[in-house]
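Support reply, case 0932

Customer input (verbatim):
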Amino acid sequence: MTETERPGAAAWVPTDAAGIDPLREAARACHGCELWEPATQVVFSAGPPGAAMVLVGEQPGDQEDRRGAPFVGPAGTLLVEAVRAAGIDPTTVYRTNAVKHFRFEQRGTRRLHKTPETVHITACHPWLHAELQVLTPRIVVALGATAGRALFGRPVRIGAERGRVLQGALPDSAALSLLTAHPSAVLRMRGDPGYDDAYAALVTDLKTAAAAAVAT
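Our regenerated output:
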């Protein structure tokens, strides 16, 4: 599928969805970009629809693609640890991704992660838009630059913009928003001198988001 042949997800998104379950079911048939074909399955979301906090990541990884649920691989494990360290019950948080299919490069038996391009973010955005329309979160946390671009509609700089609670920044939701690092970026630093600081910064950002959610 070439760039001009990517129709986008809008044709598959139900216009009258009354909740997350109809969206999740409809997403199984989505061919809005070419990523659906090599992927094992669509990976939509997890967590309670009434959650005060929504976490938006980049895309499913290898384990997520195989198991059909977001944030169940190594980065997801680190994220759950950070959420707990921030004083948040992980079962109360809604988790999703900007892109719903795994983009990868096959190398022998391994599937190596490839960052989604802008065309994939754009093609998949109707799903994220629909999610935010039926959810009622108090705050939406963008995990990483891809999620930030999907939510804010522009390129973002993690180092310069992270940790700030924003009002009115999301065109698809009245919720507050906050940008932070993706847990996979923190995970890649494990064993390096800067890991502890990177992990602590992620926890701090999640604490900031949780406090803002309670204050609204």
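We compared this against your earlier run and they match. Two observations from our side: Residues 195-215 form the longest helix (21 residues). Residues 17-215 form a domain with the Uracil-DNA Glycosylase, subunit E fold (CATH 3.40.470.10). Please reopen the case if you see a mismatch on your end.
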